[in-house]
Predict the 3D structure of the following.
Amino acid sequence: MSRRPLARGIRRVVALGGAVVLLAASPLAAESLADARARLEAGEPEQALRILDGLAAKSRRPRAEVLLTRSEAHFMLRDPVAGRADLEQALEIDPELRPGWLTLGALEISQRRYAEAIAGFERARELDPEALDNHINLGAAYLLAGDAEKAEGHFRRYLELAPDQLEALLLVAKNHAVADRPQEAIGLLEQAVALDERSRIALRTDPSFESLLDEARFQKLLETDGYEPPPEHFKSFFRLPEEEYEVREGRVLGAVIDALRELGVAFDRRVEVTPGWSLIWGDVRVKVTVGAEGGSRVELSASPERYDRETFRTLSKRLYDQVLVELAPVLPLGAPR
């Protein structure tokens, strides 16, 4: 069972059978149990299992939390039979162990037993009716069970309540994508990009969205930059008429990136590249694109919270000069000058 963190805090994402559900972290009842949990978080399930086996052997009836944690170790070691056995025993000992019902629901989804998954998630909702993960979990299960109407109801409620709207849009979109509902997924992704253009990076890199790559609407979303800097932001541009924008060798983009480094301008290494433009985010937003009359155009914008007008103007001039330096041919050592 693969486990990947989605957000910081006590929640984590578990992807099972394509569905995306949220599981709450199990409570840590003792130092030795905490140590086992730390081993799991460090990706060391074998060491965690040795600790948990020792804890379980100390009592004829092990604590539910020990069994629940041991079930996770078994799942990480790809032993679903032992994992399920410990999980079911934990829930038999303590039927109010909500993380166990969440894990059971996720396990049922991985085995395509969607009715049973819904039952597990409904039990988790009974134990904590206000928990936000109720709606994403039930939405995922109902969607895979073929009940789109109930799924949409839960997804809408999740989007209404989620404190991080961007994260919520992407998570619900993933569920639609893996359930082969491309238009519903793309609609949510369009909202995500409108909320934060940098989310296009997730669209390009998250394997959950690979099934959307053949969709024209999705391709348009990836290749459209509709961002307009706020009126109060500083803006400038310069042209490189002799340098054609292209992505195969990326000569112009590479020169801009090297120039930013040389000037000590901080930027995100995740550069977005398309056939018509490239985007670099950082202290300055830099867009490299095809010039209207050929060549290339480099557009800059920055917040007044980061630069004052004169500093931004100076930086723009220095960047232009440095890009020209980076683009200049390098003479061999000893060549006549």
User: Anything to note?
Assistant: The radius of gyration is 26 Å. The chain has 14 helices and eight strands.
